[in-house]
Amino acid sequence: MKRESRRNFLAAAGGLAAAAALPSIATAQSTRTPPNNMPEVIRRLVGSAQINKGKVKLGLPPLVENGHMVPLTVSVESPMTEAAHVKAIHVFTEKNPLPEVASFHLGARAGRARVATRIRLADTQTVVAIAELSDGSFWSDSTHVIVTLAACLEEL
């Protein structure tokens, strides 16, 4: 009887110690992740140019169960001729450890300005796609995604 009560006591004490440590582990993880500087990174990309709304269509599911594999499509209205085409498509996130998720460089020979891939999302956040056109203009679209199981939580 004594041996069983001792085991129960040790199991309960171990459980309490683990429960007490969990909040400090989560706090330590959040302090290790540097703040995302998405607006600054976007400004470095576009310089002083204005970012216009429209022409870009960002496709993401509004609710994602797993942030490790989120399907993403970006399409841009463009004739994709030598005179007028999409030069690049950039995807940014506001809460991932690194704000620039992907950059796709296109040209007139691409035929159409559409890309599809899967990305990781660290948390519920806004995703922004910016297209750079051959005339030097920038166009964008953004969408808010709710993530139930976050990704990107490991250390950098």
Write the layout of secondary structure elements.
Layout: H1 2-32, H2 38-46, E1 51-53, E2 56-59, E3 63-66, E4 70-76, E5 86-93, E6 100-105, E7 114-119, E8 125-133, E9 138-149
Parallel strand pairs: 1-9, 3-9
Antiparallel strand pairs: 2-4, 4-7, 5-6, 5-8, 8-9
The number of distinct helices, counting runs of at least 4 residues, comes to 2
CATH fold annotation of the largest domain: Immunoglobulin-like
CATH architecture of the largest domain: Sandwich
**What's the average pLDDT?**
86
The CATH H-level homologous superfamily of the largest domain: SoxY domain
Strand coverage percent: 35-45%
**What structural category characterises the helix and strand content?**
alpha+beta
Largest sheet composition = 6 strands, mixed
- What is the string of helix and strand elements? HHEEEEEEEEE
DSSP helix fraction: 25-40%
Domain count: the total is 2
Q: What ranges have pLDDT less than 50 throughout 5 or more consecutive residues?
A: 24-33
The CATH C-level class name of the largest domain? Mainly Beta
Which value, in Å, is the CA radius of gyration?
22 Å
Cα-to-Cα separation, first versus last residue: 50 Å
In short:
Mean pLDDT is 86; it is low at 24-33.
Characterise the protein shown here.
- The chain has two domains: 1-32; 38-149, SoxY domain (Immunoglobulin-like).
- With 156 residues, the chain is α+β, with helices and mostly antiparallel strands.
- The chain has helices at 2-32, 38-46, and strands at 51-53, 56-59, 63-66, 70-76, 86-93, 100-105, 114-119, 125-133, 138-149.
- Strands 1, 3, 5, 6, 8 and 9 form a six-stranded mixed sheet that branches. It has a three-stranded antiparallel sheet with strand order 2-4-7, with no helix packed on it.
